[in-house]
Amino acid sequence: MPAQDLISIVVPVYNTENYLPRCIRSLQQQSYQNLEIILVDDGSTDHSLDICTQAAQSDPRIKVLHQQNGGVASARNAGMDAMTGQWLLLIDGDDYIHPDMARDLLSAVKENHAQTAICGFSHVFPDQRSGPVFALESAWNGDQHAFAEEMLLPLYRNLLLRTQSNKLFSTELIRQNHLCYPEDFSINEDIWFCVRYLTFCKRIACIPGSYLFYWQNPQGNSQISRYHPEGVESCFLLLSAMRKFLESADATKEIQMEMENEMLFHICGFAGHSYYRTLKTNKACLDEIRQLSTRQEMRELLSHIQPKGLKNRVAKALLSRGQCRLYHWLCLCLYGKQRSTLKEAMTVQQKEHHKNEKKEKEQNLNPAISQNPVDRPQEEIMVSISCVAYNHGPYIAQSLDSYLMQKTNFKFEILVYDDVSTDNTREIILDYARRYPDIIKPYFPEENQYSQGKYNVEGFFNYPRAKGKYSAMCDGDDYWTDENKLQLQVDYMEAHPECAMCLHAAQIETAQKAVQLMEIRPYKKDCIIPTEKVIDKMFNYPTASLMFRTEYTHDLQDYYYTSPVGDIPIQLHMAAKGTVYYLDRKMSVYRQGVTTSWSALMKEGNYKQNLIDHHNAMKEMYRAFSRETGGKYDTAIERACRRMDFLTLLNVKEYDKALLPGYRTFYRELPLRTRLLIRFEVTAPGLFTLVRRLVFGKERI
After folding, report:
1. pLDDT band at 86 (very low <50, low <70, confident <90, very high)
2. What's the mean pLDDT in 504-532?
3. Is pLDDT above 50 for 376?
4. pLDDT tens, 225-274?
5. Is residue 98 a contact partner of residue 30, using CB atoms and an 8 Å limit?
6. CB-CB neighbours of 271 under 10 Å
7. Are the C-beta atoms of 583 and 492 separated by less than 8 Å?
């Protein structure tokens, strides 16, 4: 293979031990193999460097650099200094890429004689079905001027311009123009680098499809989610770079004005961060607004811009006239609620911190307190309870109470994740966190993650912060009914270290409590469940019953993150790690009919198509599990996929197909009551509908 076809992939690494193996694996499995993979460890304090070193020992294409912590820009620069290929990919250590990304981007630059190629990306999930996906529907290529006129705004607004990781760069162009990352900035440095690079490109190619799977920090510590003192400064740096690019591209005044409107919008946005991402005093915030309004670059921008959008119009009307106090007052009104929420959260954290300090002082004054295990609570957390909530206001208190009532001889924590509820769920969680600061640890993202395609938020936001030896699951609309649930499961798993997961039976309750005697009882006695039965089962195991070893969540495979649901892939993952044990004891309640539940969302729109799409995605997940386990369980996997086809037919009432001989085995496994109801509906549909309405109301339960 010609030397000029070598692609260097630079990966900055800092404390990403839980996700780095996935990233490295996606690079090694590229269909285009002529790669140089440069892993730059930026002074990690976890096991990231060990992971890099082990990967390099098994793959000669991998090089490892180690430096003192200097930031992601410094790490990227170090990697670019060491690269030897003609082409460059810049991938972050917690992201991963499609197997054909390197091949397709390289083909695009070669076929179009371009200096860069740009592809789409998605937030973890690989296709438009699971979204959100930021990608072009068709290919495009052209010179710099055409790019500025036709593609700059669309790519900027749908985020394709704002990351370096979805682009293939020419190393020759980088070196000729002495391009590197500005190490004084920790935000906007990526888009600044991209804009500066595009300024020197003669031709640019864009390809359709999503190739980069962009992952955001589960702790909420991503660069974009934190307050940045240099945020406004970085916007002015980007504004300067954007103007140079537009000048080089001979862009029209219309495009220049559109981009300056975008820049003004972001400048005002970062200025607003002081109001709701910090606890700065009102006077300090006002002083920052005054400094912004007198800044030469800002005054020059406001003097000639034709503002679009309410925020930009207000900024020009007030700041250009020096009405800083009025602008400040509007910011206080606009961000008042977010500011109050931040203060509440900080108050909870401060109280917890002061309480811990007081406890440490007491232990230092009286060493006997810290030495006598009988007189002090056990410090090591045994179980981390993972609770995910969204608009669960009517249910979340009962759910939290059911965790708190647990009687154990060990310590547990409650990790509550709220996906930006629009009802009073968040306020209820905050109230509980204030009352139980040592136990309940909430997490509130700034944006709803489900709408962005992150369905398995436990893997992103709860498991990585779990301190317990074991993790237990329960959604915010379900609850536990047995105060000994955790103790029983821990006792078994402690006595059986080969056990990776323990589960139990559950009751079913509708949102209106119309039916309370139904149950989820997979087996009629305590037993070890064979892995094949975990893979292929008639009914899913109760999510609120699952307990598993937290250490096994540290290497969740790609199929977990790309699955449309989280409970089934976690079951498969655990079954591949060890034994699975079932306790025939009903210790939790699964609520049916909650408006925000998965089953309710499936019924929105075309129910049949939603089911088909869901089951197709699940089949992909099963096939990925097959690849991970080397085809060991293929018989059970194929049976599980066929069972999903059968269940789809049942759910959409296509009984003529569901009752065909090919599905007869699955039909016979149904409970007798279900089979009788199906036969009744097939034989006398009119009478069945009448009876159903009399017994259950409009819908069958």
Report:
1. very high
2. 78
3. no
4. 556 667 888 899 999 999 999 999 999 999 999 999 999 998 998 888 88
5. no
6. 23
7. yes
Residue 506, helix vs strand vs coil: strand
Cα separations (Å) of 335 from 228, 275, 278, 332?
Answer: 17, 6, 11, 5
3-class SS string, 54-111: HHHHHCCCEEEEEECCCCHHHHHHHHHHHCCCCEEEECCCCCEECCCHHHHHHHHHHH
Instruction: Say which amino acid occupies 115.
Output: Q
Helix axes 20-28, 48-58, angle to 10 degrees: 20
pLDDT given at position 352: 64
Mapped onto helix, strand or coil, the DSSP state of residue 578 is: coil
At 678, list the tokens.
Answer: 């199906």
Would the pTM count as exceeding 0.90? no
Q: Helix or strand or coil: residue 150?
A: helix
Q: What token pair was written down for 524?
A: 């009629």
Bridging pattern class, strands 116-122 and 203-213: parallel
Phi, psi at 141, each rounded to 5° = -155, 150
Q: Give the CB-side neighbour count of residue 405, counting CA atoms within 13 A.
A: 15
Task: Return d(Cα 186, Cα 73) in angstroms, integer.
Answer: 7
Residue among 48, 34, 52, 38 nearest 81 (CA): 38
A 10 A CB-CB count for 51 gives 23
Q: How far apart are the first and last CA of the chain?
A: 62
649: CB partners within 8 A, 6+ apart: 655, 657, 658, 663
Residue 316 tokens, joined: 């020009």
Residues in the chain: 701
**What average pLDDT score do residues 199-208 get?**
96
Check if the beta carbon of residue 470 is closer than 8 Å to that of residue 390.
Answer: no
